[in-house]
Write a structure and sequence with these properties.
heterodimer; A: about 200 residues; alpha+beta; 2 domains; 3-stranded mixed sheet; 3 helices; B: about 120 residues; two-stranded antiparallel sheet; disordered C terminus
C-alpha cells in the first residue's frame, strides 16, 4: 500500500514539475477556449486592372450601429420575448481623388513655360472597412453571417455618406490641384493654371 | 471561409522633389520612390462562409469569432503582397502613365528610375 502511495506521489510531483517548466499543459487551461488560428492559405490573383488614380485625400471615421431582430415566438400580455440584439463598431477609411485617365488632349495646353491642365471631377475611390476594422460590442441571440454582412454594408454606406457631408470631394479637388501644380512646377513649368473641369 | 480582396498599389507623387528630377531641354529623368501598397479592401459582401460544421459541445461561431478569422486572412494577404508581384506591376503601370503624361507636356525623351527618393541622381 505504501509502495503505491509513493508511486502516485512521485507521478504527481513529476507532473507538477513539468507544468512549472511548461512541458505539460496546466489543468486550469484545459477547458479554456483556445484562440482560433487559420492555416497558411494560398492567395490567388484573379484579375489585375491598370488604374490611373490620383488619390489625394483619405478620411478616417468610426461608426457604431445596433440592430434588433424580433424572435418568432408567441407573445403573451405582459410577457414579450426579448429581441436579438447586435452592436457593431466599425472603422472606415474613405479615399477620394481624380482619375487621370479621364484627362484628354483638350484638357492640356502648353505655351513655352506655361501649362494649363483641366482635371476631371474628383470622386470617391473607395470606402474601406476590412474585417480587422470591425468589433462586436454586443451579440445577443443568433445572427447569421448574411445578416451581419447586411449590417456591415449599411455601416459602410453611412461612412461614405458622412465623408460626402464633410466635403471630401471639394477637399480632394483642392488637394489634386495642389499636387499636380507642385508636380508640373517641379518638372520645369514656371506658370501653371490647374483647374477642375 | 473565402474572401475576395482588392489590393491597390502605386507610387507617392508627393515624395517627388526637384532632387529627383533632371531636365535637359526635351529630355527628362525621374527618380521615383518604389511602389507601395496603398490599400487593401475586403468588402463585407465578398467574405463568404463556404462551410461550417460545429460540434455538439460548441456553440456556433459568433460575429466576433468570424471577424477574428477573417482578420487573420487579411493579415495573410497583407504579408504576401511582396510575393504576389503587385508592386512590380504598379511600377510598370506608373511608368506608362507618367510617360504618357510627360509626353503630353512636351517631353520627348523620358527616363524613369525607381529608387529611394533621398538618393540623388547619378
Amino acid at each position: 500500500m505504501k509502495k503505491y502511495l509513493v508511486i502516485i506521489a512521485s507521478i504527481l510531483l513529476i507532473i507538477f514539475l513539468l507544468q512549472k517548466i511548461h512541458w505539460f499543459p496546466s489543468f486550469s487551461g484545459l477547458f479554456k477556449s483556445k484562440p482560433m488560428i487559420i492555416d497558411e492559405t494560398p492567395v490567388l490573383i484573379k484579375e489585375i486592372h491598370n488604374l490611373s488614380l490620383l488619390t489625394t485625400i483619405s478620411m478616417y471615421d468610426e461608426i457604431v450601429m445596433d440592430s434588433l431582430k424580433s424572435k418568432h415566438l408567441p407573445s403573451f400580455p405582459g410577457l414579450r420575448p426579448v429581441p436579438d440584439k447586435i452592436v457593431l463598431i466599425g472603422k472606415g477609411t474613405v479615399t477620394a481623388g481624380v482619375d487621370l485617365k479621364k484627362i484628354s488632349d483638350n484638357d492640356v495646353m502648353i505655351m513655352k513655360d506655361s501649362v494649363m491642365i483641366r482635371l476631371p471631377q474628383p470622386e470617391i475611390q473607395s470606402v474601406i472597412m476590412n474585417p480587422s476594422d470591425f468589433e462586436t460590442f454586443t451579440e445577443e441571440g443568433k445572427w447569421s453571417p448574411d445578416e451581419i454582412t447586411q449590417i456591415k454594408m449599411r455601416m459602410r454606406d453611412k461612412i461614405g455618406q458622412r465623408a460626402l457631408q464633410n466635403q471630401i470631394l471639394a477637399k480632394a479637388g483642392q488637394r489634386s490641384i495642389m499636387i499636380i501644380d507642385n508636380f508640373v512646377r517641379t518638372i520645369g513649368f514656371k506658370k501653371t493654371n490647374i483647374t477642375i473641369r | 471561409m473565402s474572401c475576395k480582396a482588392t489590393l491597390r498599389a502605386g507610387i507617392d507623387l508627393s515624395k517627388i522633389t526637384e532632387k529627383n528630377i533632371e531636365i535637359h531641354n526635351k529630355s527628362i529623368e525621374l527618380n521615383l520612390p518604389h511602389a507601395t501598397l496603398i490599400s487593401l479592401n475586403i468588402k463585407p459582401e465578398d467574405l463568404k462562409t463556404e462551410y461550417e460544421d460545429v460540434s455538439l459541445l460548441r456553440s456556433s461561431f459568433s460575429s466576433a469569432e468570424r471577424d477574428a478569422l477573417a482578420a487573420q486572412g487579411e493579415a495573410n494577404i497583407r504579408n504576401s503582397v511582396d510575393s504576389l508581384g503587385v508592386l512590380q506591376t504598379a511600377e510598370i503601370n506608373a511608368n506608362f502613365i507618367l510617360t504618357n503624361f510627360l509626353k503630353r507636356l512636351g517631353y520627348e525623351k523620358i527616363t524613369i528610375h525607381y529608387n529611394n527618393v533621398n538618393i540623388p541622381l547619378q
